[in-house]
Automatic annotation (TrEMBL):
The keyword ATP-binding applies. This is Cobyrinic acid a,c-diamide synthase. One of its GO terms (molecular function) is cobyrinic acid a,c-diamide synthase activity. Residues 249-429 form the CobB/CobQ-like glutamine amidotransferase domain. Keywords: ATP-binding, Cobalamin biosynthesis, Glutamine amidotransferase, Ligase, Magnesium, Nucleotide-binding. It comes from Marinomonas rhizomae. The lineage of its organism: Bacteria, Pseudomonadati, Pseudomonadota, Gammaproteobacteria, Oceanospirillales. It comes from the Bacteria.
Length: 444
């Protein structure tokens, strides 16, 4: 069968390392073209919950993750193809450095033919910035680089030194002055959640648009070249997904404490036939009528007192657990499931007590990485990213299999209908296992 093709302007924003300004510039570009009446679809490379919230507000469109290992090539291809059908511009924000990770941002860009723009913090260097950018641009033959974005450029003379040192094949797309008022706010695991600073972000987005307009190099303010995006041929085959959760209602915790939720996971649940409803462990006192619960990750350590003092909710979830119905508790959700949690102020509070053990924050050092959850129901991919530890927990039923290391990954616990782990699961990577986790002992 011949694949359908849709052409759409697209640009992949990458960098030589983290903390170069990729998210700030991606958000600024998204808002710049959105203000012009364009439909801008933004994607974020790799497992990330916070950047997509920022980028969704900037673009006023949903933001999805793209990761060849976690989601698969076909899934990524389908997401890009669907976006290209409605968008005037596709932006992809990379993760870490341009060639870091397996697969890397460069691997993703090369696979789908998206030109890359290199974002570089050029403070403290001039011609060297051109040398680094040139080396990145020519490191691999299968990667197309559109140019360099010089971030935190001190003056026009600074920009001129960089511009003159670049080869003609690598244009300077923009020279962006230092402006701390544009920088996005951060927290210990990354950017703060968009809902917490919505009004502040609006001010910063609009300021960032003016910041872009001040560049002496205007290549970034023009739509990039169109890229062909191809159908997978299976994109419209709804019969391929067996609705194993048809007629089931899944209640999802979503509030200031629990918000690490991929939109792709919610879409996966509905594609399996489930009805999704939301509740707040912080504010609600009763659970919705549901067949299963999902306690996702987030920042419970910032809300320990409120979570602990909401006794009606704690009792409701404990009764739900005792009924044997399915519960998935991921990272922050797992910490909430433990007997108690010690927060960043070293204060210890009782939690749900549906999983034996204690949780505690541990400052700056943390665990992260891509892993495959290996459990009795099968294998499903995901990732770990946490700065806490758990102790005195029961014997695991399985461990995460690390992507590139032989040591066991995160422990995975199952009791009654509860599945709990530090791992954040990506449901589309295995819909069958996803359904089994939520069905627990029920008949599908």
């Amino acid at each position: 069968m011949t694949s359908s093709v849709v052409h759409c302007p697209a640009l992949f924003l990458t960098a030589p390392a983290s903390n170069q300004g990729k998210t700030t510039i991606t958000a600024a570009l998204a808002r710049y073209f959105t203000n012009q009446g364009k439909v801008v679809r933004v994607f974020k490379t790799g497992p990330d919950y916070l950047d997509p919230q920022i980028l969704a507000q900037a673009s006023k469109q949903p933001v999805e993750q793209l990761d060849i290992w976690m989601a698969g090539e076909e899934y990524c291809q389908d997401m890009l193809y669907q976006a290209a059908q409605v968008a005037d511009l596709i932006l992809v924000e990379g993760a870490m450095g341009m060639f870091d990770g397996e697969p890397s941002s460069a691997d993703l860009a090369a696979r789908f033919g998206i030109p890359m723009a290199i974002v570089m913090d050029v403070k403290g260097m001039a011609q060297t910035a051109a040398a680094v950018a040139t080396g990145l641009a020519h490191f691999r033959d299968d990667v197309q680089v559109a140019g360099l974005i010089a971030n935190r450029c001190g003056s026009e003379r600074h920009a001129e030194l960089i511009r003159d040192a670049l080869p003609k094949s690598l244009p300077l797309l923009a020279t962006l002055k230092r402006d701390e008022e544009i920088t996005l706010p951060e927290r210990h695991l990354g950017l703060v959640q968009a809902d917490e600073v919505k009004d502040e972000l609006e001010v910063r987005f609009e300021a960032a648009v003016e910041w872009l307009k001040e560049t002496q190099d205007t290549g970034l303010l023009e739509l990039p070249n169109a890229v062909p995006f191809y159908s997978t041929n299976q994109a419209d085959d709804n019969q391929a997904i067996e609705q194993k959760l048809l007629g089931k209602t899944i209640a999802v915790a979503r509030d200031g404490a629990f918000s690490f939720i991929y939109d792709a996971n919610l879409i996966a649940l509905t594609s399996l036939g489930a009805k999704v409803v939301f509740f707040s462990p912080l504010h609600d006192q009763v659970l919705p009528d549901a067949d299963a619960l999902w306690l996702p990750g987030g920042y419970p350590e910032l809300h320990t007192k409120a979570l602990s003092e909401n006794l009606p909710m704690r009792q409701a979830i404990k009764a739900f657990f005792q009924s044997g119905k399915g519960i998935l508790a991921e990272c922050g959700g797992m910490l909430y499931s433990l007997d108690d949690l010690t927060d960043l102020d070293n204060q210890c509070y009782p939690m749900l007590g549906i999983l034996e053990g204690q949780g505690a924050m541990r400052g700056k050092r943390g665990c992260q990485g891509m892993q495959t959850a290996v459990i009795p129901q099968g294998e499903i991919r995901g990732h770990a990213h946490h700065r806490s530890r758990s102790a005195n927990t029961p014997e695991p039923v399985g461990y995460g299999r690390r992507q590139r290391h032989p040591a066991p990954g995160e422990a995975i616990y199952q009791q009654k209908g509860l599945t709990a782990s530090y791992l954040h699961l990506f449901f589309p990577s295995n819909l069958d296992v996803t359904a089994k986790i939520f069905l627990a002992g029920q008949q599908g």
